[in-house]
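**User:** Hello, beginner here. Are you able to go through the protein record under this note? It all follows right here:
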Amino acid sequence: MTDIILCGCNGKLGSAIQAAIKEQEDCRIVAGVDISGENHSDFPVYTDPSEIQESADVLVDCSHPTALKPILDYCYAHPGLAAVLCTTGYDQEQTSAVKKASEVLPIFRSANMSLGINLLMDLAKKAESVLGDAFDVEIVEMHHNQKLDAPSGTALMLADAVSEVRDDQMKYTYDRHSQRKKREKHEIGLHSVRGGTIVGEHQIIFSGPHEVITLSHSAQSKELFASGAVRAALFMKQQKPGLYNMSDLI
């Protein structure tokens, strides 16, 4: 049995993860953390990780980037506890903190817990290796009107995958309306759309001489992200310190 602490348990993804775990027989939630402190579940809910009384094998976070420090502090104080970080929107300092923590803690981090998105990332790498700089790359992402960060962590993950093929030589362009110049060859345009209840749509557009190739993924429910988070939690229970992602899980 894998015992899990769920941070952000009252959020939309947190609720989906709860539902997914109820369908499992090999894991359970022993405690939750949510800034609201409200408890609608059959496990205790705390407002801060430092208040947790229960022991666990894995901590799953789907809350907010501002919760990273107390989460890492809690993990440092409980050797052997693995962490699955599903939250997006970390800044450079927070990303460095995660990397440093992975030197002594087993940490799983992915901007998107979907198997399909990670397949899309591999396809994007393949396309870039074949098409090269003869094709311009633009990424369009669409999400619901409550999403805080833009571009999405997934869009940045996809851009990083393409840039990696070109030895990280690509420049990311987020806003064109303030510029009056031609598109540069070594850039990736990232565009964000926010509206309604869109779960998550991502397109990678390769535009070349006289042809356009588009790779796309459409998330139709948060259940697919929840399923990925649970799979990651089960995977991380036995892992040694290090930084893991969906490629390791797959």
In short: The chain is about 30% helix and 25% strand. The mean pLDDT is 91.
